[in-house]
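Quick one - first record:
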Amino acid sequence: MPTQYDVASSQPVTAQIVEAVAARKGADPLDLQPLYETVDPEALEALFAPTTTGTERGGRIEFTYAGCRVTLVAAEEQAITVENATPSESDHDRSSGRQQLLD
């Protein structure tokens, strides 16, 4: 069953992803592989940062990180959903990472 976390504006979304995955796995965040081995953290932050006019961006990105499927949705509210990855997703995660930008 997936676990959903609200995104807090006081902390970078990438740090919140690492913490959410660590919580899901019952691990220390420092024991996980670096997030940058799976997804570009700067690009991820930019995707969900406010625009230059201050309006919120909307979108969804899904990727596999540390054996978990992570979905980040930005609409009126931002949320991170973490669930266990399937074996094939986990294998792909270890080999090359996976990024998929969804509408």
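second record:
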Amino acid sequence: MGKKNWIEFDNQEKKSEETLKLDTFTKRSKIIISKQKKGKKGKTITLIKGLGTEDEILLKELLKKIKVFCGTGGILIDSNIQLQGDMVLKSIEFLRKEGFHNL
């Protein structure tokens, strides 16, 4: 059978774009991960501060990835990531996999 409608894609370009995006984060900055309960009607949240960038698009992409990894909801407020629940250990594990080592 012929390959009439067959199109092959090169994923190398996409991988190089992703590595360039991750390199734009200042991975040497001190990242603070804390658990808070105050002012949230008794609900616990995990707060991630100091990611080293103000670029909202990159932060939203990182937020989406970390929400999928942790299996929880989250929001981006003032360049800080807030995750629902006690996700301190999971978020540390995720950020280390992404290349952030100053936790």
